[in-house]
Amino acid sequence: MTLRLSDFDAVTFDVYGTLIDWEPSIIALLAQWAKRDGVTAGDEELLMAFDRARAEIQKIRPALLYPDVLRRCFARIAAEYGLAEDEELREKFAKAPHSWPAYADTHAGLTALRARAKIGALSNIDEGSLKSSCSKMGIQFDIVVTAERVGAYKPDWPHFHTGIADLAAMGIPRERILHVGQSLRADITPANKLGLKCAWIHRPGRLLGLSGEGAAEARPDLTVSTLAKLVAAIGDK
Fold first, then answer.
1. Which long-range contacts (C-beta less than 8 Å, at least 24 apart) are formed by 201-204?
2. Is 14 a catalytic residue?
3. Largest CB tally within 10 Å, which of 29, 182, 211, 219?
4. Annotated catalytic residue: which of 7, 9, 14, 86?
Protein backbone atom coordinates (compact mmCIF):
# COMPACT_ATOMS: atom_id res chain seq x y z
CA MET A 1 0.00 0.00 0.00
CA THR A 2 1.21 3.50 -0.84
CA LEU A 3 0.84 6.00 2.00
CA ARG A 4 1.04 9.73 1.34
CA LEU A 5 1.22 12.43 3.99
CA SER A 6 -1.42 14.39 2.08
CA ASP A 7 -3.88 11.63 3.02
CA PHE A 8 -3.47 12.40 6.73
CA ASP A 9 -4.01 15.38 9.01
CA ALA A 10 -2.33 13.79 12.04
CA VAL A 11 0.51 11.37 12.70
CA THR A 12 0.58 9.72 16.13
CA PHE A 13 3.62 7.98 17.54
CA ASP A 14 4.68 5.38 19.99
CA VAL A 15 7.64 7.06 21.71
CA TYR A 16 9.96 4.53 23.37
CA GLY A 17 11.62 2.34 20.78
CA THR A 18 10.27 4.49 17.95
CA LEU A 19 11.62 7.95 18.80
CA ILE A 20 13.63 7.27 21.96
CA ASP A 21 16.39 4.66 21.83
CA TRP A 22 15.92 2.86 25.14
CA GLU A 23 17.18 -0.69 24.51
CA PRO A 24 20.96 -0.10 24.79
CA SER A 25 20.52 1.59 28.19
CA ILE A 26 18.25 -1.17 29.47
CA ILE A 27 20.66 -3.87 28.29
CA ALA A 28 23.67 -2.08 29.81
CA LEU A 29 22.08 -1.88 33.26
CA LEU A 30 20.77 -5.46 33.26
CA ALA A 31 24.06 -6.84 31.93
CA GLN A 32 26.04 -4.97 34.60
CA TRP A 33 23.74 -6.40 37.27
CA ALA A 34 23.96 -9.96 35.89
CA LYS A 35 27.74 -9.88 35.49
CA ARG A 36 28.22 -8.60 39.03
CA ASP A 37 26.16 -11.50 40.40
CA GLY A 38 27.79 -14.14 38.19
CA VAL A 39 24.82 -14.70 35.87
CA THR A 40 25.87 -15.59 32.32
CA ALA A 41 22.65 -14.66 30.50
CA GLY A 42 23.29 -12.81 27.24
CA ASP A 43 22.03 -9.36 26.32
CA GLU A 44 19.09 -10.58 24.24
CA GLU A 45 17.99 -13.04 26.92
CA LEU A 46 17.98 -10.31 29.58
CA LEU A 47 16.12 -7.91 27.30
CA MET A 48 13.45 -10.52 26.58
CA ALA A 49 13.09 -11.20 30.31
CA PHE A 50 12.37 -7.49 30.70
CA ASP A 51 9.91 -7.56 27.78
CA ARG A 52 7.95 -10.45 29.27
CA ALA A 53 7.89 -8.87 32.72
CA ARG A 54 6.67 -5.47 31.57
CA ALA A 55 3.96 -6.98 29.34
CA GLU A 56 2.48 -8.79 32.36
CA ILE A 57 2.92 -5.94 34.84
CA GLN A 58 1.29 -3.45 32.49
CA LYS A 59 -1.92 -5.50 32.62
CA ILE A 60 -2.37 -4.63 36.32
CA ARG A 61 -5.38 -2.41 37.06
CA PRO A 62 -5.46 0.17 38.41
CA ALA A 63 -2.39 0.83 36.31
CA LEU A 64 0.93 1.53 37.97
CA LEU A 65 3.01 4.58 37.12
CA TYR A 66 5.89 3.66 34.83
CA PRO A 67 8.65 3.98 37.46
CA ASP A 68 6.74 1.41 39.51
CA VAL A 69 6.44 -0.83 36.44
CA LEU A 70 10.23 -0.71 36.16
CA ARG A 71 10.66 -1.48 39.87
CA ARG A 72 8.42 -4.54 39.54
CA CYS A 73 10.24 -5.63 36.38
CA PHE A 74 13.47 -5.41 38.34
CA ALA A 75 12.03 -7.65 41.05
CA ARG A 76 10.78 -10.23 38.53
CA ILE A 77 14.10 -10.39 36.75
CA ALA A 78 15.86 -10.77 40.10
CA ALA A 79 13.59 -13.69 40.96
CA GLU A 80 14.01 -15.31 37.54
CA TYR A 81 17.82 -15.25 37.62
CA GLY A 82 18.53 -15.30 41.34
CA LEU A 83 20.00 -11.81 41.27
CA ALA A 84 20.39 -9.71 44.40
CA GLU A 85 17.67 -7.04 44.65
CA ASP A 86 19.97 -4.06 44.87
CA GLU A 87 17.84 -1.07 45.98
CA GLU A 88 20.21 1.52 44.54
CA LEU A 89 20.30 -0.20 41.16
CA ARG A 90 16.52 -0.68 41.22
CA GLU A 91 15.99 3.06 41.73
CA LYS A 92 18.47 3.83 38.97
CA PHE A 93 16.39 1.58 36.71
CA ALA A 94 13.16 3.30 37.77
CA LYS A 95 14.60 6.73 36.89
CA ALA A 96 16.28 5.59 33.67
CA PRO A 97 13.65 7.00 31.25
CA HIS A 98 14.86 10.51 32.09
CA SER A 99 18.25 9.68 30.57
CA TRP A 100 17.27 7.59 27.53
CA PRO A 101 18.43 9.38 24.33
CA ALA A 102 16.47 10.22 21.22
CA TYR A 103 17.38 8.58 17.92
CA ALA A 104 19.52 10.79 15.71
CA ASP A 105 16.69 11.24 13.17
CA THR A 106 13.92 11.99 15.66
CA HIS A 107 14.02 15.78 15.84
CA ALA A 108 14.36 16.37 12.13
CA GLY A 109 11.71 13.78 11.28
CA LEU A 110 9.13 15.11 13.72
CA THR A 111 9.84 18.69 12.68
CA ALA A 112 9.29 17.82 9.01
CA LEU A 113 6.02 16.04 9.76
CA ARG A 114 4.75 18.75 12.08
CA ALA A 115 5.10 21.29 9.28
CA ARG A 116 2.41 19.36 7.38
CA ALA A 117 0.25 17.66 10.04
CA LYS A 118 -0.55 17.49 13.73
CA ILE A 119 1.70 15.11 15.66
CA GLY A 120 0.77 13.13 18.75
CA ALA A 121 2.41 10.91 21.34
CA LEU A 122 0.60 7.75 22.50
CA SER A 123 3.04 6.46 25.09
CA ASN A 124 3.26 3.80 27.78
CA ILE A 125 4.97 6.21 30.17
CA ASP A 126 4.38 8.70 32.99
CA GLU A 127 4.07 12.45 32.47
CA GLY A 128 7.38 13.34 34.15
CA SER A 129 9.45 10.90 32.11
CA LEU A 130 7.84 12.00 28.86
CA LYS A 131 8.61 15.63 29.66
CA SER A 132 12.30 14.72 29.92
CA SER A 133 12.11 12.79 26.65
CA CYS A 134 10.43 15.69 24.84
CA SER A 135 13.33 17.91 25.85
CA LYS A 136 15.74 15.37 24.32
CA MET A 137 13.68 15.20 21.14
CA GLY A 138 13.42 18.99 20.97
CA ILE A 139 9.72 18.80 20.13
CA GLN A 140 6.31 19.51 21.59
CA PHE A 141 3.47 17.25 20.50
CA ASP A 142 0.03 18.60 19.59
CA ILE A 143 -1.63 15.87 21.64
CA VAL A 144 -0.13 13.72 24.39
CA VAL A 145 -1.67 10.52 25.74
CA THR A 146 0.31 8.78 28.48
CA ALA A 147 -0.37 5.72 30.59
CA GLU A 148 -0.59 8.06 33.56
CA ARG A 149 -3.31 10.10 31.86
CA VAL A 150 -5.52 7.17 30.83
CA GLY A 151 -4.71 4.71 33.63
CA ALA A 152 -3.80 1.90 31.24
CA TYR A 153 -1.06 0.58 29.00
CA LYS A 154 -1.14 -0.28 25.32
CA PRO A 155 -2.13 -2.59 23.71
CA ASP A 156 -5.22 -1.83 25.82
CA TRP A 157 -7.58 0.57 24.06
CA PRO A 158 -7.64 3.77 26.21
CA HIS A 159 -4.57 5.37 24.58
CA PHE A 160 -6.07 4.99 21.13
CA HIS A 161 -9.62 6.01 22.05
CA THR A 162 -8.32 9.10 23.85
CA GLY A 163 -5.98 10.07 21.03
CA ILE A 164 -8.74 9.65 18.45
CA ALA A 165 -11.07 11.78 20.62
CA ASP A 166 -8.42 14.49 21.10
CA LEU A 167 -7.91 14.72 17.35
CA ALA A 168 -11.65 14.62 16.64
CA ALA A 169 -11.95 17.70 18.86
CA MET A 170 -9.53 19.39 16.41
CA GLY A 171 -11.73 18.32 13.50
CA ILE A 172 -9.55 15.37 12.46
CA PRO A 173 -11.44 12.09 11.83
CA ARG A 174 -9.84 8.70 12.46
CA GLU A 175 -9.46 7.97 8.75
CA ARG A 176 -7.09 10.97 8.54
CA ILE A 177 -4.81 9.61 11.29
CA LEU A 178 -1.61 7.63 10.66
CA HIS A 179 -0.23 5.74 13.66
CA VAL A 180 3.49 4.94 13.78
CA GLY A 181 5.23 2.52 16.13
CA GLN A 182 8.11 0.13 16.64
CA SER A 183 6.10 -2.28 18.79
CA LEU A 184 4.04 -4.82 16.89
CA ARG A 185 2.33 -5.96 20.08
CA ALA A 186 1.45 -2.58 21.57
CA ASP A 187 0.94 -0.42 18.49
CA ILE A 188 0.54 -2.09 15.12
CA THR A 189 -1.87 -4.84 16.14
CA PRO A 190 -4.27 -2.57 18.08
CA ALA A 191 -4.10 0.03 15.29
CA ASN A 192 -5.12 -2.72 12.86
CA LYS A 193 -8.06 -3.68 15.06
CA LEU A 194 -9.22 -0.06 15.25
CA GLY A 195 -8.99 0.43 11.51
CA LEU A 196 -6.17 2.97 11.72
CA LYS A 197 -3.60 3.18 8.96
CA CYS A 198 -0.22 2.37 10.50
CA ALA A 199 3.49 2.35 9.75
CA TRP A 200 6.00 0.10 11.46
CA ILE A 201 9.46 1.55 12.10
CA HIS A 202 11.52 -1.60 12.46
CA ARG A 203 14.71 -0.13 13.90
CA PRO A 204 17.70 -2.39 13.12
CA GLY A 205 18.73 -4.60 16.02
CA ARG A 206 15.83 -3.54 18.26
CA LEU A 207 13.61 -6.25 19.73
CA LEU A 208 11.17 -4.94 22.32
CA GLY A 209 7.52 -5.35 21.39
CA LEU A 210 8.18 -7.67 18.45
CA SER A 211 6.95 -10.81 20.23
CA GLY A 212 4.33 -11.78 22.76
CA GLU A 213 0.55 -11.76 22.70
CA GLY A 214 -0.83 -10.35 19.45
CA ALA A 215 2.49 -9.50 17.81
CA ALA A 216 2.18 -12.15 15.09
CA GLU A 217 -1.17 -10.66 14.01
CA ALA A 218 0.34 -7.25 13.15
CA ARG A 219 -0.11 -6.08 9.58
CA PRO A 220 1.50 -2.67 9.02
CA ASP A 221 0.51 -0.70 5.94
CA LEU A 222 4.13 0.40 5.55
CA THR A 223 7.43 -0.89 6.98
CA VAL A 224 10.58 1.23 7.17
CA SER A 225 13.76 1.05 9.21
CA THR A 226 14.05 4.67 10.38
CA LEU A 227 11.94 7.76 10.91
CA ALA A 228 13.93 9.51 8.20
CA LYS A 229 12.90 6.79 5.74
CA LEU A 230 9.26 7.13 6.83
CA VAL A 231 9.33 10.86 6.10
CA ALA A 232 10.91 10.18 2.71
CA ALA A 233 8.44 7.40 1.90
CA ILE A 234 5.24 9.30 2.68
CA GLY A 235 6.36 12.70 1.44
CA ASP A 236 4.29 13.78 -1.54
CA LYS A 237 6.21 13.78 -4.80
1. 201/18, 201/225, 201/226, 201/227, 201/230, 203/17, 203/18, 203/21, 203/103
2. yes
3. 182
4. 14
